[in-house]
Amino acid sequence: MLRIAIQAKGRLNEESVELLSDAGISIESSKRKLLARSEDFPVEILYLRDDDIPQAVSMGVADVGIVGYNEVAEKEFDVEIAHKLGFGKCRISLAIPKAEEYTGVAYFNGKRVATSYPVVLSRFFKEQKIEAEIHEIAGSVEIAPSVGMADAIFDIVSSGGTLVTNGLKEVEKVLFSEAVLIRHKGLAEEKQQILSQLMFRIEAVERSRGLKYMLLNLPDEKLPEAIAILPGMKSPTVLPLAQKGWSSMHVVVNEREMWSKIEQLKAIGAEDILVLSLEKMIL
Ligand code: ATP
Ligand code: MG
Q1: Which one of 137, 154, 156 would you pick to mutate in the ligand 1 pocket, going by the greatest count of ligand atoms within 8 A of its CB?
Q2: How far apart, in whole angstroms, are the C-alpha atoms of residue 139 and residue 174?
Q3: How many CA atoms lie within 13 A of 184 on its CB side?
Q4: Residue-averaged pLDDT of the chain
Q5: Looking at the predicted structure, is the pLDDT value of residue 29 above 80?
């Protein structure tokens, strides 16, 4: 049995649940408790506050966890980063009131900076040889300058909308973050094996993201041109149609290129183009 800690509610919850469910690990929502057992795979899901996940994994209360890299960097617990998951992307940045002139990182000497990430910030200031006062606050960091609690903030930014709303501007991007899968150091052999199976599934899910399966019919003499347009994984599958002189071609394409490929294929005489979603890709 492998115990996986995920965020109980918040920005990472939905995508964590979705990733596990795409990997064949589902929990009926009616059965959702603090700790829930999956019906189809030997894992248990432990729902926690994101702040508590690095510690739970370092202690072995959970074997693995899905959490923002920002929390791992701040908490400094001894865990291993097993995999980057590509969602929950954000950065932790220094921001100052919009009207201030920013002259470089030396600006922060003697300033008061409010943050929920004092460890990451003091590490940065130390590296940059900045002497500043760090005020740790738990929430609503972005209002600290306007109420006079601080001169600047160090907080999570994704689109930057919250900063603009609060009359602030981002001046230093210090730490880039995304959701990561962390693991306890020294997992027992049995858990290690379940984790390898889980990783195999996660990689298959990731590989199929943004990919589509495309089928189309075209005259045989156009096959070389179509193959040049659609190189496929190894080479595209080509099957003869009942109608003489025509073939059906099957290929995996990237969603980003899909429309331009369709236009090129239509231009050379392809017909009956079907695009299907691709669920898993096992190599
Ligand atoms: P919890 O109740 O679990 O402690 P929280 O309020 O601390 O939740 P959320 O706001 O749900 O945390 O954010 C969880 C994680 O989502 C962050 O630690 C970060 O890794 C990521 N994230 C991505 N974009 C943003 C954003 N714009 N603001 C805040 N967090 C973001
Ligand atoms: Mg939190």
Answers
A1: 156
A2: 19
A3: 22
A4: 94
A5: no
DSSP string, 53-90: HHHHHHHTSSSEEEEEHHHHHHH----EEEEE-S-S-E
Q: Give the domain range for residue 114.
A: 90-177
Cβ proximity of 6 and 65 under 8 Å: yes
Q: Are residues 107 and 182 in the same domain?
A: no
17 and 30 both lie in a single domain: yes
Give the position of tokens 């929990």.
Answer: 27
Give the Cα separation of 142 and 164 in Å (integer): 10
For atom 12 of ligand 1, the residue with the nearest CA is 10
- The domain that holds 110 is classified in CATH as 3.40.190.10
Do 83 and 183 lie in one domain? The reply is yes
pLDDT digits (tens, 9 = 90+) for 223-246: 999 999 987 667 789 999 999 999
Q: Is 236 in the pocket of ligand 1 (CB under 6 A)?
A: no
One domain for residues 166 and 223:
no
At 121 the three-state DSSP class reads helix
Check: CB of residue 268 under 8 Å from CB of residue 226: yes
Q: Please tell me if the CB atom of residue 68 comes closer than 6 angstroms to any atom of ligand 1.
A: yes
